[in-house]
Amino acid sequence: MRILVIEDDIRLAENLRFALEKEKYSIDLCHDGESGLFHLQEYPLDLAVVDLGLPKLDGIELIKRARKAGVTIPILILTARERWQDKVEGLDAGADDYLTKPFHQEELVARCNALIRRSAGQANPEINIGPVKIHTRSQQVWVNDKELSLTAYEYKVLEYLMVNPQKVISKSELTEHIYDQDFDLDSNVIEVFVLRLRKKLDPEGNLNPVETLRGRGYRFRNQW
After folding, report:
1. Nearest CA among 46, 87, 77 for reference residue 178
2. In this model, does residue 221 exceed pLDDT 90?
3. β 210-213/26-30 pair status
4. By three-state DSSP, how is residue 166 classified?
5. CB burial readout 161-197, b (16+ within 10 A) else e
6. Per the structure, how many domains does the chain have?
7. Calpha distance 189→201 (Å, rounded)
8. Which of 26, 44, 144, 155 could form a disulfide with 150 if both were Cys (CB 3.0 to 4.6 A apart)?
9. What is the mean pLDDT of residues 105-118?
């Protein structure tokens, strides 16, 4: 999953990047409102964390313009403003949640997880499809109640496919959502991850949980 952090405090932005990357998110950073709005409109993202006191374009106006432009991803406001009026203004502008500074990183991560699950129609951090089960908070994976060991990127691929079951996911979309923006999008490494994932989920070749649709992409089956 890919998160955009729009924060003008560079040290805080890097701390947020570190905390979210520990949770296996791919992170893009912007340090002013104008570049943040451009990024929201032009790049595939799963969530945005937006400070209100941004240079060039403040966070409230950024959110309003993003929503008007058709940006639908969840937006979490992160700000030092504590007045309830600011919270109401941010939510009315189109934000989905609001967290005031200072904050605990664990709470930020939990809110990000919840917003992404909610946007995908998954209220529970545990997703079960057929014999495959994942827990998006602990990032554990089971097949027929047997826990599997996946690499970080194998897990990212599986989570994105299972959060979007039956949706055909192109290789480029999958790449864009699990890697940072500077990754080589023409790489064939996704094919390697999918192949390894299939072998771990289905070593006997009986389940076929991840389908390949030639010329279109991949799809996680939700019927068994």
Report:
1. 46
2. no
3. unpaired
4. coil
5. bbbbeeeebebebbbbbbbebeeeeeeeebeebbeeb
6. 2
7. 18
8. 155
9. 89
